[in-house]
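Example 9 (inverse folding). The structure is encoded as follows.
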């Protein structure tokens, strides 16, 4: 079985906890592969476990994209299980909305919807402070339109290519 680089969530225990999507992006990056390939590798390890049954795997293209890792869906549960089992990050459940949604009606599970969003000022501060830039879970809530620290509109489009 392959060895995985241990990686820890940023901001655990704070309102600025890293989102599962950001964690997956960083995880793929430290392993030198893209997110889709990292997803496939983690899924392959889960499938090698005889006690595991496949539930609609995450697809990283199209509208679901990276934000799927944050949503309360079966495929994101697979991702969190793989992260706990193979990466050793037991806090991964805190990086998605599942704990919140368990107490809510299924109709409200669209709390996290649409493209990944970020605050350009927060990411600049992360870099300037010598830290790792990361996406906060709070930015992924569909009702979040501005950064609560800087009160600037959250960005959605890639600054290089304009892709959302």
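The amino acid assigned to each position is listed next.
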């Amino acid at each position: 079985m392959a060895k995985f680089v241990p990686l820890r969530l940023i901001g655990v225990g704070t309102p600025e906890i890293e989102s599962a999507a950001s964690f997956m992006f960083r995880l793929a990056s430290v392993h030198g592969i893209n997110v889709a390939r990292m997803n496939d590798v983690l899924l392959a390890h889960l499938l090698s476990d005889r006690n595991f049954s496949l539930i609609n795997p995450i697809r990283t293209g199209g509208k679901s994209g990276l934000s799927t890792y944050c949503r309360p869906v079966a495929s994101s549960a697979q991702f969190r299980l793989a992260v706990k089992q193979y990466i050793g990050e037991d806090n991964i459940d805190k990086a998605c909305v599942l704990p919140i949604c368990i107490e809510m009606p299924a109709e409200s599970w669209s709390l996290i919807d649409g493209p990944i969003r970020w605050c350009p000022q927060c990411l600049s501060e992360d870099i300037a402070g010598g830290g790792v830039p990361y996406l906060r879970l709070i930015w992924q809530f569909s009702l979040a339109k501005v950064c609560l620290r800087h009160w600037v509109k959250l960005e959605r489009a890639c600054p290089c290519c304009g892709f959302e």
